[in-house]
Prior knowledge:
Blueprint (H helix, E strand, L loop, with lengths): L1 H59 L37 E4 L5 E5 L29 E3 L18
Antiparallel strand pairs: 1-2, 2-3
Amino acid sequence: MARAAGFTYLGLLFAIAILGITLATVGVVWSTQIRREKEVQLLFAGDQIRMAIGHYRASGGQYPQALTDLLDDKRSAVPQRFLRRIFLDPMTNSADWQLELAPEGGIMGVASRSSGTPIKVAGFSAADASFEKAECYCDWKFIYSPRVSRHRRVKVPTLTH
């Protein structure tokens, strides 16, 4: 009887060990998924702020002096809103973005203050191509830079009958 109790006890210990390993694995997978979702949120928020800075600059020729200028631009008789709200940085869970300043003054972009290592290191959009192989989220700089527009004449083929 004592011998059977010993095997039952070992079987129970083995089952608890397997359960612990399984739960640890699930925890790692879950935490990785949460980080991936936060990266998607960071890419969205940073892109929205970058586009708002671009619209602000296009409407008045200068960069905003503060992110709050994107919420209520009073440079004209009719105030404009380029953002509905200041997005939180999902990596730090705060609106305390690292501001990227333009050489001529004002804010030309934002970056996360997080020093965490990104999971995503490739497959970015063209606007975010500089994020590839970044070592921390703070290297993901969402900077608006006006594209130099060059008008060139393109020869359009014509159909002949």
